[in-house]
Amino acid sequence: SAINFLERLCLTWMFFFMMCVAERTYKQRFLFAKLFSHITSARKARKYEIPHFRLKKVENIKIWLSLRSYLKRRGPQRSVDVVVSSIFLLALSIAFICCAQVLKGHKTFLSAAYNWEFLIWEAALLLFLLRLASLGSETNKKYSNISILLTEQINLYLKMEKKPNKKEQLSLVNNVLKLSTKLLKELDTPFRLYGLTMNPLIYNITRVVILSAVSGVVSDLLGFNIRV
């Protein structure tokens, strides 16, 4: 019993350590995205002590797009994706086991100690996945903030009125900003957890196995057949 307890403790510590590393990576990505969104604002750039430049030249737009692409790829990618997908698979497996136990006998489900352990693990994993989903969504919003480009376009229109002799040059920059806005809208997609949508195998497991198990549990508890 003591050896079994120590093994569980070590495995739990290792697993949650990897989860903390993945969360730290997501937090760093969010910090980079937050600071990147403040580059074109003089007040915010001064507040956070970061470089500041306006998108009033084609060279500046090129630097802005290159920096955006570099920051999105910075840091560990595949290793963190493997950790997140492993956590997602574990959560799916525990959910399937719990559903099977409920179908076997929902009245005696909570009487077993290992079922309580499964529920605690499932709750911890779901909270962690929700945390990652929240950080990933906020990061994506920072990088997909098209209002920055729209603000720069308005500033260019105002400069055209004040400096008609530079209208041709400013029109070129404005056209590049419009193309950049369309490009970002085409390339950017809503944030998705790696394990659920980007891996077809995990998606099929979720759709076929887990939803079928949940459907069986709901049908057993409610007393009539239901399809999910």
TrEMBL record:
Coiled coil: none
Keywords annotated in UniProt: Membrane, Transmembrane, Transmembrane helix
Gene Ontology CC terms: endoplasmic reticulum
Top-level lineage group: Eukaryota
InterPro entries the UniProt entry points to: PHTF1/2
TM annotation in the entry: 6-26, 82-103, 115-133
Name used for this protein in its record: PHTF1 factor
Gene giving rise to this polypeptide: Phtf1
